[in-house]
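Might I ask for a little of your time on a matter of protein folding? What I wish to show you is a protein chain and, alongside it, a tokenised description of its three-dimensional fold. I should value your view on which stretches of the chain appear to form regular backbone elements. You will find the record immediately after this paragraph:
***
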Amino acid sequence: MKHHLHSRRSRLAAWLGATLACGLVASAAAPATVGAAVPSGQGRPPVAAAVHHPAAPAKASGNVCHKNKIDVPKCGVLWGLYEPGVKTPLGYRAPYRTIEKAIGRRLDLLKTYVDWAPGDGFPSATLASLARSGKRVLDVSWNAVTYHPRGKVSYASIASGEWDKSVILPEARRLKAFHRKIFVDFDHEFDNKQQAGKGTPAQYVAAYRHIHHVFAAAGVKNVIWAWVSTGDIYHAAQLKASYPGRKYVNWIGYDPYNWASCRSQHWDTPYQTFHPFYRWVSHQPGMKHKPLMLGEYGSVPGPLVESWFSHIPRALKHLHRIKALMEFSSGSPPCDFRLSSSPAAMAGFAIAANSRFVTGVRH
């Protein structure tokens, strides 16, 4: 789902339109009525006043667990965020350090979005500086659109090699020289109806594989390949047909949201929000052993929002394949997922971020 943004998504929202920007499209995670029963303790959350505030681990600085070659933590999860940039005289600057100070820990993942235009290389200098210490990893959604001029890029043109010299190979060389692990997902939420017109699922697969092949031929070894859909299991046939294959994908991502008042729906717990696609993907050949990430997630504000965020670790204990989460701190009423718009949401986010389960700190 796409929402109003500033830096990445400011331009993307401009051409995708207000409907997509507000997230009012039928690409959300499936309703909580789909899937198995909620485990004990995973029903509707208690009122916010009943939230238990666990003690934060001493000097929590991020996930402390050893990671393997594709950066899957052996315990805990990678805790991340997308936050729109703030316009300054020097350009857009994402206030990630300010958020880290507010929640009392370093973020593990920083998300951004870029288009397909020649010369629009990534990562930006600002994000690259945040990742140079090696303690934060960047996650880039590389979308088959152009902002200037506005338009969609066909999957067939990508797969044919039309963009190799102007876009794909220059970016491959740029990332090779970056010398840091970086997540890249091609055409985030490819199954969203607003993405229609770029090609068939088979053409999407061909484009994804072609980008992968160009990067491999260029000797790029630091890219972690993600495949990120809306997570709407009502798109099951399209999702199956659009999967590039296990040899091309390191992580599988999806974007579940607690829409509640935004769509006149009932309030879902984190488990109810995250579980439908989790259950579906666990039964798909070539997908069921991949680590999962929430490429975007969030909850609209409300009296239970602090409880909602603070209960995320409880849900993750039952959803053990989810090893990374990136909260989408953006949007506008009625679909407002900004942490800055809700002190209660920020408080719950901080509680979850510092929980022992999330950080991997042992008792």
Summary: Residues 125 and 131 are 10 Å apart (CA to CA).
